[in-house]
Amino acid sequence: MDDFTEQELEQARILFARPATFVMGAAKIEQLPDPDLPEIAFAGRSNVGKSSLINGLVGMHKLARASNEPGRTREVNFFDLDGRMRLVDLPGYGWAKASKATVKKFQDLGRDYLRGRVTLKRVYLLIDARHGLKKVDDEALDALDLAAVSYQIVLTKADKLKKGEAEKVQAATLKAISKRPAAYPAVIVTSAEKGDGLPDLRAEIMRTTGVTI
């Protein structure tokens, strides 16, 4: 885990308290907004808690639409943080309630975004802390390594674990990605419900993008 000063944590809190708005959902690569702001993206299995985490970071309940139906995010969704950076919600993976053609269509869109987005600073790959890395995550890890996009693992729903279990999953995850070329060597443990880990994630994002208040 990276260490952040009290000043960094406070600056990050102020930054993410600024107005956040939904910009657009892009269903095709040609529809992406101009690459004129630093961007960080969130990826992960369906139902891993991407929407809840994005909402938690900005302190809003309904910025990103959470759903109990896996695979609802079928576009690349862009959110603007006070005109300073964009938060990007990528389509989920690892579910089978749509046709293979439909799944391939929006997963290819996500891959195209990863490969060609010059303003993308880092991808935060969300993993359910109750399950850790699964075989279905390997394809996402391989795609990120292949695209040479810096990514960092964020464990979600840590409040669902017993005391001490999250640290074990964190250590196991860090070991599993240790030889992956594009993986950032730190794993953040979070709970959107309790707010745990969000101050560190905000500070990590601020440091990564170079955005200041």
Helix content: 25-40%
**Can you tell me the overall shape?**
globular
The overall pLDDT, averaged over residues, is 89
Count of alpha/pi helices: 6
Q: How much of the sequence is in beta strands?
A: 15-25%
Which segments are poorly predicted (pLDDT under 50) over 5 or more consecutive residues?
68-72
Major sheet: size, sense and barrel closure?
7 strands, mixed
Structural class: alpha/beta
The SSE string, one letter per element, is HEEHEEHEHEHEH
Report the count of strand segments.
7
Distance between the termini: 23 Å
| Cα-based radius of gyration, to the nearest Å | 16 Å
Question: How are strands sequenced across the largest beta sheet?
Answer: 1-3-4-2-5-6-7
Structure commentary:
- By secondary structure, the chain is of the alpha/beta class.
- Helices cover 35% and strands 19% of the residues.
- The protein contains six helices and seven strands; from the N terminus they run αββαββαβαβαβα.
- It has a seven-stranded mixed beta sheet, with helices on both faces.
- Strand 6, helix 5 (165-176) and strand 7 (188-189) form a beta-alpha-beta unit.
- Helix 1 (6-16) crosses helix 6 (198-209).
- The model is unreliable at 68-72 (pLDDT under 50).
